[in-house]
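Hi Q.,

Before the meeting this afternoon, I wanted you to have the zinc ion prediction in hand. No need to reply - just skim if you have a minute. The sequence and ligand are here:
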Amino acid sequence: MKSILSGLRSIGGGLAEVLAPDYCMLCGGRLSKAEHRICALCRIKLPATDFHRIPGNAMQQRFAGYGTIENAGAVFYYVRSTPLATAIHDFKYNKFPSLAVEFGREMARRLLTTGFFYGIDLLMPVPIHFTKRMRRGYNQSERICRGLTEMSGIPTADNLYARRPHKTQTGRTPEGRRANTRGVFSVRRPYELLDRHVLIVDDVCTTGATLLACAETLHSAVPGIRCSVLTLAATTTT
Ligand SMILES: [Zn+2]
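Predicted structure with the ligand bound:
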């Protein structure tokens, strides 16, 4: 199992999808015809937050008091060295964009019946600067949105973009993280977003500084906009 998984990783996503599409990206087990990228057992074992059942949950608390984010959700807990953390690393750095799309579908499956998407007009992936996009080949948050759009029917918009690259947020203080994201994002064609409620989507939420910067940028560029945020996973501490 492990050797199949490391083999998949070493050949990279694009080739792996052609050469070995039938193995679970989390456990390396063989997939049945009905399964795609992640097996049913691994899906069950994913560390669900169930935040949608908890009013005032930890994710909502992270953004309370700023006045720019209405609702906030994260579908799973992010814990280092777990299969989910490895999978996120895979779709970020090992060129497995289809895994990000599949996680988008999984997020939608878990949230569609909860009312979380009620009133949301557009999905807005957290942008990455084009130099990073060139290097990586894709924006993983945009791929997550692709899976969400497929299942929910809510379109993905490209109005938010990164004007300049920002350095990694790892190891920074909360204030440092906010300073690091200041002036990074901008909005194209803001008139398209007037009075819309957008859901800003990212892979992992740690302090929330990036999501907050996106929401603040949208609020200052677009009159009447409403913002909520959703991530695939969130760390348990900031
Ligand atoms: Zn599996």
